Amino acid sequence: MSDLVVLRRQQIVAAAESVIIERGLQHLSLAEIEKKAGMSRGQLTYYFPTKEEILLAVFDRCVENIHRRIAGPLESIAAKGIKGWPLVREIMAAVVRDIVTEDPFYPLEYTFLAQVGYRKDFGKRLNELYSHWRSCMAADLDCDADPAVIANLMVVLQGFLHGLAIQRLVDPGMIDSGAVTETFLVMVDLYLERILKHGTAVSGVNQASEFNSTRTKMLAEVVQ
Question: What is the pTM (predicted TM-score) of this model?
């Protein structure tokens, strides 16, 4: 790919991102992108045959921007020399602080989610992203426990971040993200303590009594 092609594609993606930020995803059209990029329809479709391909490119750009924004905080965390759950805990807190409600990534993410039933390329891109994030968190956790249990925990952590992002989008002032995150992480603290104690998630008849004990301890720590 020549430098000119790379430049033109970057200009188109930047124009599409600007339209999304300024007017919302619902107003994104080839006509609006043409106007913002200062290109003709022929130029636009030469570099991106469909609007969906532009959306995928904007999505990738948004992911790169997120990684770039949190690179500094993550380097600072890594410099502390902490490992395992304390490391993942700080990374999650940094990610929560990084949630920017006007960032086009989140509207795009949920637009893609709404269309995965008939847009397999959207589903594939999200699956690759989510799998990568879960793998990174699991590697950082470095927990000597049943891999299936750890995999399930990574899904829960990721689900929490998504849910919090949705609430922040709908009503940024509705919740104290820091307090909510801390409450959630206390629960994970106790769950991990149980995993490390038993080597796996507790099941069967012991689960009810262990749950009651854990719940009491968890509530006490949250109150503190």
Answer: 0.69
